[in-house]
């Protein structure tokens, strides 16, 4: 891969990754609930989904998912329903089931919850990444722009994926670290319901927005 083209790709993807989305929100949720030491599995789920997408693009499947295709339409609907489900589940777990259990006074944001299995966290992150069909469309349009025809194709896709993985892990860990610092410094401003409530609202908003645009 041409070094100048790779640098341009890395800078472009870095800027994109800094923009918060469902994947970042999932990392922050897991950081707040389980601690930052356990979020690598969450990132691995996200990156595994992106790996499958890149492989699909490499073999030409990604080109079939144009914005006009029926497959894209149904992917958007499925993604919207899943994001709405995530938001509704948070509302139920925190505001309904939690109230029914009549737990004692609200806990702080940095309380560590019971840790689900790595498999469950991995699959949840994978599903969140897969729930946004715009990721497929974006990568299908974005990656080929940085392919040099004079270089072998497979190594170029491999280099781009490794670059994506390094950027995603670095940026997501940065977000997790900032959240930990914020909750330690401003712990008195947060209750156990504030961050989950914001997360639920964002998931519901993203799901409804995606569904309306389907």
Automatic annotation (TrEMBL):
Membrane topology of this protein: Multi-pass membrane protein
Subcellular location: Cell membrane
InterPro entries in UniProt: LeuE-type
GO cellular component: plasma membrane
Superkingdom of origin organism: Bacteria
Swiss-Prot/TrEMBL keywords: Cell membrane, Membrane, Transmembrane, Transmembrane helix
Record field: transmembrane: 6-28, 40-65, 71-92, 125-147, 159-182, 194-212
The protein, known as: LysE family translocator
Organism name: Agrobacterium vitis (Rhizobium vitis)
